[in-house]
Structure formats: structure tokens, C-alpha cells
Amino acid sequence: MRKTLAALVFAFAPTVSFAGDYGFITAVHPIYKDQYVTRYETHCYDVEVPVYGRVRSGSSSDTLVGAIIGGAVGRELGSGSNKDSLAVLGALIGASEASRSKKHEIVGYRLEQKCERVTNYVNEPMLSHYNIRYEYKGQEYHERTNRKYTLGQKVRVQTSIK
Predict the structure, then answer these.
(1) Considering the entire predicted model, what is its pTM?
(2) Is the dihedral of CA 130, 144, 11, 20 positive or negative?
(3) Which one of 9, 27, 69, 104 is separated from 91 by 20 to 30 angstroms, measured CA to CA?
């Protein structure tokens, strides 16, 4: 029974073993793959913003127009001998209001900072694996590995029993 068990173990054992043989690394090449990542940045800049205020217009043309409109309205409201006195009163009130009127307009500018969030997609290469070359018994071999090696480092060599 023991002989049968031993025979089965050897029959199903792998054909590769580590016999303690070593080679020496002659080249190491890292291999990268592209990986795009999202990066967010904030960009700020200055913007001129208008400042609004009331400005007294009081020009002579505004006063004249106000007097004409006020006189016309006063004449329409009056009746009989009242028409002329209301027209004069309307012209005086219209001229007075027009000379005191204020306009809402831009009186200056101020600087404000405006910021925007910008999305960038950046390629950041990511290490995939290493291609190494090593020398063993005068022969050069190539291997792909995830382990990082340095030049001249010893590497265990897989040998076949077959």
C-alpha cells in the first residue's frame, strides 16, 4: 500500500522544481499601461463689475421737456379760464421735477474675483509588470514578472526534472 501511495505522489507531482540554481539579472524593463484619471482644478480670475447709482440729470433740455409736458397736462385738466393758469402751474411743476430727476446709471466699476471648477482628464501611466532578462549557464532568458528586480541581482531559476 505504501509503495502504491508513493507511486501516485510521484505520478501527479509537478515536473518543475527549484533546484537551487541561480541566474543574474542583466536587464529590467518596467511596462506601463495608460490610466486616465479625473483631476479637478479651481481657476480664478478678476472681473470688472459695474457699480450703479443715481445721478442728477438736471440738464436744460430735460427742464424744457418737463415744462412742455407739464403745461400740456395742466391745460388738459383745466376748464374755461382755469386752463391757462393750470397750464402755467403744470409747466412750472414739470420743469421743477425734470430738473430734480435722477437717473440710474453706471457710476464706476469694482473688481470681483470669479472662480470656476475645471475638470481635466489626465493620463497617469500605471506600472503593469516588469520584463526581465537574466543569464543562466551562459544562456539569456526572458521573463515577465510582477516583482521588481535590480541589475546584477540573483534570481532563482526554474529547472525541469522530466
Answers:
(1) 0.40
(2) negative
(3) 104
